[in-house]
Amino acid sequence: MFLENLDLGVVAIYAVLLFAIALYVSREPKGTKKNTEDYFLAGKSLPWWAIGASLIAANISAEQITGMSGDGFVMGLAIAAYEWQAAIVLLIVAKFFLPIFLERKIYTMPQFLETRYGSGVKSLMSVYWIFLYVAVNLTALLWLGAVTVERLTGLDEMWGMIALGSFALIYSLYGGLKAVALTDIIQVVILILGGTAITWIALNLVGGNNGAMAGWSRMAEEVPGHFKMILSSDNPSYDKLPGIWTLLGGLWVLHFSYWGFNQYIIQRALGAENIQEAQKGLAFAAFLKLLIPFIVVIPGIAAFMLAKDGLLDASAINPELGGKSDKTYGELMKQVPAGLRGLVFAALIAAIVSSLASMMNSIATIFTMDIYRDYMAKDRSETHYVKVGRITAFVAMAIALIMAKPFFESMESAFQTIQEYTGFVAPGICAVFILGFFWKRTNKEGAFALLISSVALSIVLKALMPDQPFVIRIWAIFLICMLIGIVVSLLTPKPGDAQPVDLNGIQFGTSSGFKLAAAVITATLIGIYVIFW
Questions:
Q1: Residue 254 forms beta bridges with which residues?
Q2: For 45-409, CATH number?
Q3: Which of 223-232, 250-259, 357-366, 447-456 bottoms out in mean pLDDT, i.e. has the lowest?
Q4: What are the angstrom distances between the C-alpha of 265 and each of 56, 270, 276, 287, 377?
Q5: CA nearest to 491, candidates 431, 446, 438, 435
Q6: Residue 434's closest CA among 257, 269, 245, 266?
């Protein structure tokens, strides 16, 4: 066990503080009970800083910290495309998509689809999302978190998953989204502090204890291939990040599906006080996105150097030697001094439990509001639906605990596995929303056709062209789904008069502060790609 008593004390203080704040922000006025808006949308009272911090805390979890640091070890800075491109997507979602969602006063993404296409499409997407969240996302979060905990504590992966899941359940079940979002502010601070500490320490070790900048200079000189954003076709990792296609192809589909139409993420913006707060929150999250690769990818590149120097156990983390790159972050944490190691470990736990809590709340929201309330128990009390949401979250966690180890134990890179399997539904999700927003002729028949085609085509093309990079495959399927949706819609009756989105009454304008933030973030990203092309 690499955690000392001082480290455990730091983690214990973090846990107690988190529980205390969650209970405080979740308290109810005397004589009142939480209703569905309170529990699932935080009473629509979230300010911009809570929205932005919560978005990042929900997003940055074990799959990023352990998965992307492992991919940084193997392929270098190119994996940061998943983070940096997301910043642009957040700005687009804030300006063009959020006004539509908030105008319709929805709780869930399936709810929007019901108002646009009818109950059948809503039900199909509800099942899609619940299955994806439980079978892929929750399981991955638990497994990757447990792998890192095992590297530091020796705790068996199954017990590690049980501990992480129980932690997330205890502090989130009572308070709902408000407890999750407001405690996420603490989570993000700890995450950035802890991540910055491990990056600095790793770079200093690479530089022979001559400072982090010396380590950076040495890495840039000795492994320049690890500082390429656009991989060449002869790169061993080209199948995962196929060069220029990361800018021109399916990576954008994954981004928009995740950041624009994903209940797990967009639920924070739906809980905003107003559209201005929601847009500022997404701009804040986009700014934080610029920082994330420096605390999750750069440590992986540093670990590559440290393994070469014999300072890390290469047999544990180098796939060429039979190791698993997902264990990179856990090995790096062993280099951190006692006390500070506890802070870094608390940052990791913070990221994991925040994402687990957010995912559970989204599963509970979709099941309760889109399936249970509509098809199983209409016209029940608000407290009844809140209770069902809590039960749903607990059951989802139990199922994920059972599925996690068998599904992910044999995977080479859990982060890439998540992206590929998410890509089975992402093209259809993007197509059904984009056509629903901006083409009034789209009808329910077209929506059904493109959603079903997304999964069917993904399975067929994966079988027929297993070596085709999935980023390219996702882009091709998205274009085909768009075409299918248009053709089927034209061949079938027009949608009802109330179904198309009336964009005339929706305000897409943004504040001068938002415009300035968008300009700075965009210019920064252009500079990054020019420097590291």
A1: none
A2: 1.20.1730.10
A3: 357-366
A4: 9, 10, 18, 16, 27
A5: 446
A6: 257
